[in-house]
Amino acid sequence: MTYEIEKTDAEWRDELSPDRYAVLRKAATEAPFTGSLLHVDADGAFSCAGCGQTLFTSSQKFDSGCGWPSFDACEPGTVVERRDKSLFRERTEILCSKCGGHLGHVFDDGPTASGLRYCVNSLAIDFDESTR
After folding, report:
1. Residue 26's domain spans which residues?
2. What CA–CA distance (Å, rounded) separates 55 from 28?
3. d(C-alpha 78, C-alpha 56), whole Å
4. Residue 77: which of 49, 58, 97 has the closest Cα?
5. 119 catalytic, yes or no?
6. What confidence tens digit (pLDDT) does each residue in 66-112 have?
7. Catalytic residue among 48, 74, 96, 119
8. How do residues 100-114 score in pLDDT, each as one tens digit?
């Protein structure tokens, strides 16, 4: 798959912190309940830490109890899915549609009408609080 933003591995490594590089470019996962955005409840938007594309809003966020920020929907066209057969099971990986950064996984066990739970690494996203 090709993305609007294409960079070499060396360019990504230079631009991202080691932890963010591991998550966004190598599909690592931060430890549960350690992410800085897990308990953010302010109004605002969550964007890709690799390219800045807005992915989720605070109105889509909920506390799933899983240990990672969870959302019941994404902004239209901002997330792409692909099959992930790692960890001896099949899951659906989610990636930023603009740069291909690994965000986390989506599951069909969400509590809202969408039935979805986008489980996202805090290291993969930034939060921009709305000012009113």
Report:
1. 9-32+39-129
2. 19
3. 9
4. 97
5. yes
6. 999 999 999 999 999 999 988 778 899 999 999 999 999 999 999 99
7. 119
8. 999 999 999 999 999
